[in-house]
Amino acid sequence: MSVETTNDSLTAARMAHAHPNPDAHDEEHNHGTRRSYLIGFALSVVLTAIPFWLVMADVIADTMVATIVIMAFGAVQIVVHMIYFLHMNTKSEGGWTMMAAIFTIIIIVIALSGSLWVMFHLNTNMMPGHIMNPADLL
Amino acid sequence: MSSQVQTADGEAPQFYELVPHHHAPHGSTQIGFWIYLMSDCLIFASLFAIYGVLGGNYAAGPSPQHLFDLKLVAMSTAALLLSSITYGFAMLDMEEGKQKGTIIWLIITGLLGAVFMGFTLYEFNHLIHEGAVPQRSAFLSAFFVLVGTHALHVAFGILWLVILLVQIGMKGLIPANKIRVQCLSMFWHFLDVIWIGVFTVVYLMGMLR
Predict the structure, then answer these.
(1) Can you name one GO molecular function term for this protein (chain A) (predicted)?
(2) What ipTM, to 2 d.p.?
(3) How far apart, in whole angstroms, are the C-alpha atoms of residue A83 and residue B189?
(4) Domain chopping of chain A, boundaries
């Protein structure tokens, strides 16, 4: 009798551990609809046209401001493409696509900002004008 | 109750998964391909970093304002953007099992990709004839490597698309082909994302420098 009980509890444990739906691994990717593709396309057309217009028509006089605005448009458009065309979300593949993307973004930010920062300072400090007193070098 | 449970006293019972844990035949392909795309992203990140550092070193050679034609860039961008939505339509038709529609949309996508490649090759040819060759300045080296790597990706994407069309023509929309179409879809949209970075950083910001 005791063996029966153990066996039953073991089966129960096994059932609990087993996947609730055997086919759960089959189709968990969502592919978007005609509507979501069209929304994504409309957004990306607008987000491409505006920065091109800004530069081609010389709308913003200040170069620095224009650069920041254009980069912001680019960043937003990248997010739009990620969501509407690459169908990124927190659920697909159990969240691992999102984890890989976040990891990649961190590496990209470190690589880009680090390179630009270091090389900018290297350039500035190597400028001949930066050496205040040439006698110091001797 | 056929299974025997033999548990020695004081020993923790071990559980084995006897019920087959079902995985689709290509269950891990998509995540694997995604990891590849992320690593490809890092290649482009380093090329962007190089361009960011060297993009202003003209070595008394031509600067972006002298070389780039934004109308041309706008047209190639339009071609690539359009190819993204046509690929989306191919995916939708594939989901509905329409083989003919899938093939037609994929062909249109490939043609738009070819138009993009045409613009890029025309631009490279034009630059080289003007003497703006990669060895002219650090800016041009960085430019040709970054834009060239992207163009090379598009070229291989088109090659992949042609092979995929042959495979669909031969075997139809079998599960293996569906997975391939989905992977190429990720690849294609990923190249679009990279192109957003390219036209923003290289062309638009180049004109502002």
Answers:
(1) cytochrome bo3 ubiquinol oxidase activity
(2) 0.84
(3) 11
(4) 31-87, 91-138
> Rounded to two decimals, what is the model's pTM?
0.82
- Cα(B199)–Cα(B70) distance, rounded to whole angstroms? 9
CA dist., res. B148 & res. B142, Å (int):
10
Looking at beta carbons, which residues of chain B come within 8 Å of A48? 77-78, 81, 196, 199
Distance CA B67, CA B143 (A): 11
CATH number of B104's domain:
1.20.120.80
Segment B156-190, tens digit of pLDDT = 999 999 999 999 999 999 999 999 999 999 999 99
Query: Can you give the pLDDT at residue B203?
Result: 96
Q: What is the domain extent for residue B125?
A: 70-208
Q: Are B27 and A44 a contacting pair at CB < 8 A?
A: no
Query: Residues 17-56, chain B: which have Cβ within 8 Å of A?
Result: 17-24, 27, 30-31, 34-35, 38, 41-42, 45-46, 48-50, 52-53
